[in-house]
């Protein structure tokens, strides 16, 4: 028993050890890596992964998946920009409207998964394609730009030395951890992820919980989309393409079990940092984009493989 | 060596850690006879036949097939020696045709291609031999359950089975389908195939079998010649154990108030169930596996909806659509499959106990963690849950303690009617006694209990009154002074039909 506790402690911290090793490795390989401007770049880059990863953590916690996260980011980019530039919406109104739409997409996913019973991987794959197409249709395939200068603050501003997107990310992590640890919804998420049937028989309305989780996933992806729009200051119909892949990698790397029921926000933060450092470090070392893809794909396999291997060992 | 016997099991013993499932069981099967194997739930029938198929390796004993001795079987050895088993769950592929299913894993080939035509012709012949009309091209998924079973039988015969073992073959069938299955059995018998027929339905056994072997609690009891035996004797042999376990006494605590009143409740396989439970009563539900007891519990608990009838709870008609609604009314279910449906294994004791009341102890969705801890602590002490910490995951607890956590959850939810479905299955003797004492405490505190149990002794020891179900209907009611194993078994096997034939 005692041994087990120590081992579990080590296991739960292992991801941070990996992060530190990676960090030191890149620092030695390229001195520019440690410069304060580069560190802030990393922080700003990971902020969008971090924000979107919270919703994805909830989804994976109940053994689901949300492949539409990248498309939600894109469509939020386009819609928010469109409303501000073409429809004359004020900045806050445009932001709120596009976030409501992001939640709506999440609810649509929830409807397909929970009420109809489509496997999450197919349902969210379909939404991904639909909204990727919708983004092209709405934008006509061309970027939308020319926003109010105040809009830049969200993605490019600073409070003291700290970039605003990093502050938003930290707030989101705090909210995520609060939901998981302090509210009854968090307890329900773990319960549903661990055993749906037993949860139902314990009085949890599993259907509603799924709606809530996919809606939250939409919301956090939408927030990431707003931050991205502000950073790039122009809405691209390809803005979030492939983003879900990095977000899922962050979450799984952070130890959230793909079979549901286990996971902690604190470790997801480590997962996000690893992906951020890895991406940035590879760029500094002039690793080609294609090689980066190969490396990230391998990282995902390693992370999921480690999780599945442990599950398998636990059951046999 | 006696070549009258095609299959002999000699002194089969099977031990599992802590349990002896079979104690020195012997039986012989003659060529071309139908041998019925009967016994209560858990008498060891399934374990015994699994030793013939190789699914269970006996601890000691011998299996003799056609004069060849084996100490244990493998599925392949069994097939090679002509032993075939028709399980309740068919081993078929629904998306393939009947012919392809007959040749599953061993198709007729023409070079590297599958020779569909030849297989269909062979299948046609095989079906004709058994006098059954199935188009070999039909997809098995489109056949009725009865015909699917025929395909299984045809497959066994085609693989040259000498002994066909059938485990509850009539359970999923309609009456007409049972008739045609009987015809096939008789045809096979006339061709010299032996059949071991396992069934709870005594009327079938009397119609079909030549001899009956009775098992009880993993022991061989007796072999009867069917035509010389009477059903009362048979029932007595099945249940005639000495009652030796003791049950904790409880104060009389039955009140006048009727807590649950079911009126013609139908659905989920049950038909027109009428029952009433008074406050403070323990009502036992007896019957064989598949009699519809768990199904009834699911309807009361809102896990499955009834199709018609009324559920009246504490004088008010209710129609729970989800477990959540039933829980809010004050109904709780301690399910049969503790690990899959009862406890959340990967979640802590504290969270499990609070699961149904989290919403209630939260303000603006934020859990009152002090109250959470107090509730968990209270029921840990009250139910004597043995654990170093309330943060312990439930999967690390023993079966008895897991059951207590589930019970704690329902006490925290302030449930008034608690349905126990096989509450002591897989729990060791000491913990069993504790569960019984807890049940007594509950009724003494004014709770009401519906107790589903397949253990006859437990049912009689704990209930104030027993209702027996068979095939989705209530077949009898017994008051405390009328409790007798024979009577329960008689009601559970719907013996009246057999009796009529005897007269």
Quick recap:
By secondary structure, chain A is mainly alpha-helical.
> CATH superfamily name of the largest domain in chain B?
P-loop containing nucleotide triphosphate hydrolases
Number of domains of chain B: 2
Largest interface: A-B, 21 and 32 residues
**What are the low-pLDDT stretches of chain A, counting only 5+ consecutive residues below 50?**
none
What is the number of beta strands of chain B?
Answer: 24
Mean pLDDT of chain B: 90
Instruction: Characterize the quaternary organization of these chains.
Output: heterodimer
Q: How large a portion of the residues of chain B is in β-strands, by DSSP E? A: 25-35%
CATH topology of the largest domain in chain B: Rossmann fold
Beta strand % of chain A:
under 5%
Give the class of chain B from helix and strand content and strand pairing. alpha/beta
Radius of gyration of chain B: 26 Å
CATH superfamily of the domain at 37-241 in chain A: ABC transporter involved in vitamin B12 uptake, BtuC
**How many strand segments of chain A?**
4
Net shape of chain B: globular
């Amino acid at each position: 028993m005692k041994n087990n506790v120590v081992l579990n402690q080590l296991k739960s911290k292992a991801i941070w050890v990996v992060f530190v090793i990676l960090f030191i490795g890149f620092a030695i390989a390229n001195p520019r890596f440690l410069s304060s401007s580069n560190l802030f770049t990393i922080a700003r880059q990971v902020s969008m992964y971090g924000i979107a990863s919270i919703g994805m953590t909830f989804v994976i916690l109940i053994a689901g998946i949300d492949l539409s996260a990248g498309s939600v980011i894109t469509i939020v980019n386009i819609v928010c920009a469109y409303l501000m530039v073409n429809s004359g919406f004020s900045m806050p109104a445009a932001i709120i409207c596009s976030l409501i739409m992001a939640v709506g997409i999440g609810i649509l996913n929830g409807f397909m998964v929970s009420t109809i019973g489509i496997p999450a991987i197919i349902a969210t794959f379909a939404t991904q394609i639909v909204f990727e197409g919708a983004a092209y249709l709405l934008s006509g395939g061309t970027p939308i730009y020319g926003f109010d200068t105040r809009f830049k603050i969200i993605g490019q501003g600073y409070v003291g030395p700290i970039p605003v997107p990093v502050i938003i990310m930290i707030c989101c992590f705090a909210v995520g951890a609060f939901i998981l640890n302090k509210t009854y919804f968090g307890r329900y998420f773990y319960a549903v992820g661990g055993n749906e049937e037993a949860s139902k028989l314990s009085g949890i309305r599993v259907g509603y919980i799924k709606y809530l989780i996919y809606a939250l996933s939409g919301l956090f992806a939408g927030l990431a989309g707003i931050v991205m729009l502000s950073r790039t200051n122009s809405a691209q119909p390809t803005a979030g393409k492939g983003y879900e892949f990095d977000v899922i990698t962050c979450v799984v790397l952070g130890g959230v079990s793909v079979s549901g029921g286990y996971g902690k926000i604190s470790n997801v933060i480590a997962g996000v940092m690893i992906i951020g450092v890895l991406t940035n470090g590879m760029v500094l070392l002039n690793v080609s984009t294609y090689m980066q893809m190969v490396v990230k794909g391998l990282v995902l396999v390693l992370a999921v493989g480690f999780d599945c291997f442990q599950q398998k060992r636990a059951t046999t | 060596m006696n070549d009258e016997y095609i299959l002999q099991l000699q002194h089969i013993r099977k031990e599992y850690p802590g349990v002896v499932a079979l104690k020195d069981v012997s039986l012989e099967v003659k060529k071309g006879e139908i041998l019925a194997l009967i016994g209560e739930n858990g008498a060891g029938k399934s374990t015994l036949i699994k030793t013939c198929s190789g699914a269970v390796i006996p601890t000691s004993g011998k299996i003799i097939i056609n004069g060849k001795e084996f100490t244990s079987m493998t599925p392949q050895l069994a097939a090679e020696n002509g032993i075939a088993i028709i399980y309740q769950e068919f081993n078929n592929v629904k998306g393939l045709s009947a012919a392809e299913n007959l040749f599953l894993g061993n198709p007729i080939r023409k070079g590297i291609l599958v020779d569909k035509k030849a297989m269909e012709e062979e299948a046609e012949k095989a079906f004709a031999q058994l006098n059954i009309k199935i188009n070999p091209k039909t997809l098995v998924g489109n056949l009725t359950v009865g015909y699917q079973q025929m395909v299984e039988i045809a497959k066994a015969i085609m693989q040259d089975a000498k002994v066909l073992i059938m485990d509850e073959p009539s359970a999923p069938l309609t009456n007409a389908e049972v008739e045609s299955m009987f015809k096939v059995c008789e045809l096979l018998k006339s061709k010299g195939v032996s059949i071991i027929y396992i069934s709870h339905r005594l009327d079938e056994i009397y119609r079909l079998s030549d001899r009956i072997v009775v098992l009880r609690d993993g022991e061989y009891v007796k072999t009867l010649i069917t035509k010389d035996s009477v059903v009362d004797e048979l029932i007595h042999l099945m249940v005639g154990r000495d009652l030796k376990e003791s049950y904790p006494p409880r104060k009389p605590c039955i009140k006048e108030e009727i807590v649950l009143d079911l009126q013609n409740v139908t659905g989920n396989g049950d038909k027109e169930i009428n029952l009433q439970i008074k406050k403070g009563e323990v009502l036992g539900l007896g019957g064989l596996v598949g009699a519809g007891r768990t199904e009834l519990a699911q309807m009361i608990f809102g896990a499955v909806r009834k199709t018609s009838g009324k559920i009246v709870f504490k004088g008010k008609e209710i129609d729970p659509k989800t477990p959540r609604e039933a829980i809010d009314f004050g109904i709780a279910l301690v399910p049969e499959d503790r690990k899959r449906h009862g406890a959340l294994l990967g979640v802590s004791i504290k969270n499990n106990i609070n699961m149904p009341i989290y919403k209630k102890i939260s303000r603006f969705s934020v859990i009152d963690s002090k109250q959470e801890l107090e509730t968990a602590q209270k029921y840990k002490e009250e139910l004597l849950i043995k654990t170093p910490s309330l943060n312990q995951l439930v999967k690390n607890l023993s079966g008895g303690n897991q059951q207590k956590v589930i019970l704690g959850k329902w006490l925290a939810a302030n449930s008034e009617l608690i349905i126990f479905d096989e509450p002591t299955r897989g729990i060791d003797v000491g913990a069993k006694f504790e569960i019984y004492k807890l049940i007594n405490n509950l009724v003494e505190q004014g709770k009401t209990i519906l107790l589903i149990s397949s253990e006859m002794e437990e049912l009689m020891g704990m209930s104030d009154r027993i209702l027996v179900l068979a095939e989705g209907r209530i077949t009898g009611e017994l008051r405390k002074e009328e409790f007798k194993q024979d009577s329960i078994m008689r009601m559970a096997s719907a013996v009246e039909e057999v009796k009529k034939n005897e007269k």
